[in-house]
């Protein structure tokens, strides 16, 4: 990381010396929360919950990000690689269905080491890479054989919103190539029983592509759904999300997305997917546009009991 090229931005920052790249973090691992999470897709959370580790920093920092506090690295505390491995086993001991690595991109090399070591030490549950989709496939190859499930965003097909909302006009270029590598590593979905739930099935291996519908961006969303389904068929699951929640400053600076999406817009997207023939998809119903999906980034589960959290 002395000249960081982990993500498509390739900003060249000397993170090894403690400097911060676009992602907002040095090479030191920072995490803001490590706990069971019940608001992922049903095949990820199940009844037992997903063992979620929220890492600080992000290579996108979208203006509408629900996890903006941790994405901007305003929340989180430093941990060692040994501590990260311990966290994996602590979450497994809580009967988590998987280890869910959220915004892991700035730390892919460290995560690859920690995941390999945890598997070597006997960790049994799957690893989930929960990322923004703006990934370099060459970096993703570090994770080959270590990540069992890719839970990735595909935010934009169009250049204009990608640049305006995420400062990444080349987003679709990289998202397509990253998805291809993810599917190469995990070509077919595999499901199995959930511990303690004889009727439940959870994903053990596979790829899920999430898309959060933004106000006024139905055509962009349709192009994404069309691309993913026409390229990968039902081997890739889609997750069409309606939970977009505008913040006060978003409404002020970006008035065109300063509102919730309409029921009609979301239904149009769902019907479009059905019309294409999509069978493997998750949709959201009811009042999902609220902040109940946003956990508290208070350091839960990050430090060992009895230690003092360190503010970043």
UniProtKB/TrEMBL annotation:
Instruction: Return the protein name.
Output: Radical SAM protein
Cofactor(s) the protein needs:
[4Fe-4S] cluster
Give a GO molecular function annotation for the protein.
metal ion binding
Q: What is the annotated signal peptide range for this record?
A: none
Judging by the UniProt lineage, the source's domain of life is Bacteria
Q: Which Gene3D superfamilies match?
A: Aldolase class I
The record's listing under SUPFAM superfamilies reads: Radical SAM enzymes
- Radical SAM core domain spans which residues? 53-159
- The UniProt transmembrane annotation reads none
Q: Which UniProt keywords apply?
A: Iron, Iron-sulfur, Metal-binding, S-adenosyl-L-methionine
